[in-house]
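Internal tracking record. Fields below are filled automatically when a chain is submitted to the structure queue. Please do not edit lines marked as system-generated. If the sequence contains nonstandard residues, flag them in the REMARKS field before resubmitting.
Queue: standard
Priority: normal
Entity type: single polypeptide chain
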Amino acid sequence: GRVVVARARQRATMAMTTTTTMSAFASRVSLAGASASRATTASNERRAMRCGPMRATSRARVSSSFAATTRARGDGGVDGVIRAFACARVRGQAMTRGAFAREDGETDAAKERRRRVARATPRFSSTSSRATGAVDELKEVLNQSISAMTTVTPPFYSEGVIEDSETLSDYEVDALVTDDAVFNAEMSWLAFNWRVLAMAADESVPIFERLRFVAISARNLDEFFAKRVGAIKRQDAAGVENLVKRRGRSVWTPALTLQNVATEVERQVDVQAALLENHIVPALREHDIRLEHYSELSEDVQKELAKYFEEQIEPVLDPRAIDPCHPFPFLGSLSLSIAVEIEDAFKQEKFAIVSVPAPLDRWIRVHKDSSGDDVQRFIPLEQVIEANMEKLFKGCNIVATHVFRVTRNADIERNEDEAEDLLEMMADEVRERRFASFVRLEVQDTMPSYIRDKLVDSLDGITQTDVITVPHRAPLGFGSIDSLPVDFGMDVSLIYPHWAPRTHPRLEQVRGDERSIFAAIRDGDILVHHPYVSFATSTQAFIEEASRDPNVLSIKSTLYRTSNNSPIVNALIKAAENGKQVAVLVELKARFDEARNVGFAQRLETAGCNVAYGVKGVKTHSKASLVVRREGSKLVKYVHIGTGNYNPSTAGIYTDFGLFSCDEEMGNDVVN
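SYSTEM-GENERATED OUTPUT FOLLOWS
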């Protein structure tokens, strides 16, 4: 019982001291740029005007919270946050080294801050030296944890989170670990995405890699809305009482969670746009890489793009004026569309939708103009469509065009207990997801309120809270911006240095030799570290050699995520064709890979493999393979256990470990 209480107190200490230290961090990080602060103020006022009463109130309160820390010092709003990211590592480490220290000559403010930490920290009994040592050890852990956190967290509080450490000190331990105002899973996830975005603000990172981090943070948000926000909307539909029964009265309502999420997301979107417009795009321009706007192109280039539109884009488009005979068109999740205001020959105003085709490349390379320079110029596909809109509505006057983007709910309710065939159920779910309700509408800040309201009314599931506004100079859908077809040539400063993975020394010895990979494993366990050790010459080679080896009797493996043309799947199919017993557990519920895994499962079954579809009610995340090989008069079990997926693409990016062994005890564990 004392151990449980001590651990609970540690959690409470962590929560309260972290909050206090973050307050100190926010007050100490020095920022600059009053113009950005004014821009933030104008942006917040603009958003408050276009929101409903409840959303406007939330916006006003949040904008004051967001800007309070910076305005008090004349600091710089969005640009201030970006500068804070850039200097956070140095400042955070310097600040936290003295978080619990009692140094001579500390300032009055530092003393007061230390006293607040002490008041907020539950008292450990000091009657024994063991207890005192435990406290000192805990403080050291806290110092390290806070130091890490302050280097990656923005210098302001997340919406809805309690800021006052004295308020936290009044909480009971149980409340600290269950109250959403102390820790909320959705806000914590968004705090993690700030960490990703911080990499884009780090000037020590190569400039195109910074662009990639902006894109990664945007794709993270896409998945966040599709799954996590989609789940919150399902909770909202189920009713608050059902949620309270499971978690207690301290939980946020789904409506409040959605409000807080929307506020925090717009903060991130503002920083994403500012990073692109004010930092990354200008830096790319210095390397002769330009993201152009159609109106800024020369007349000759515009004529060339008009010809490209007629030949390559127009035949794919399906413009649709909305009227009783032409209902609102189907819009796929994460798709771009253009709302068009038109005036027909009879001066009647009409509304139309043009979907931007997903199969076409988002970024179009603009060929060199008459100047003959070596600048690489790119323009987004939607701008070319907007500029040639009159060709789609001949005889009509194009009043205005407005780009928007939608996200559908990917958190589809499933009932595995009633499913007769899990494979068929998942295939149905993938089809159903295409027509699920919407969870997010992204618009640019130039879209008039009456057009936005028309879209909100036309999109099932969308409310004003679900509308995310993006600054108009930034393209919608940041997640695709790293797909620019840039020719880096000899300018290696734009990206991280290329890394060629090495073959493990023990495996290098058997390459091209008569000895097999199994002989190398018999000599002792082999630990590989991807991406530094090659996946192709280790894990992939293990499965491929097993599929060919006449002494191998059976292969068993788990598949969670793998690549499109997976060499692992191909090797398992080849093993079945060679008469080996092959059993594969394919986890059909791997998020956003359901359709791919359904296809793999069907291919494996067709080849004669025994396929299981996971375990009912849970996801199978384990990555393990078992090869049973006849060696003389006995059967030897060779195993591979890894932390990463059997995916050669991600194995070249993510850091993971893999262990090869023929240990009897480990083999029995994998068998069971």
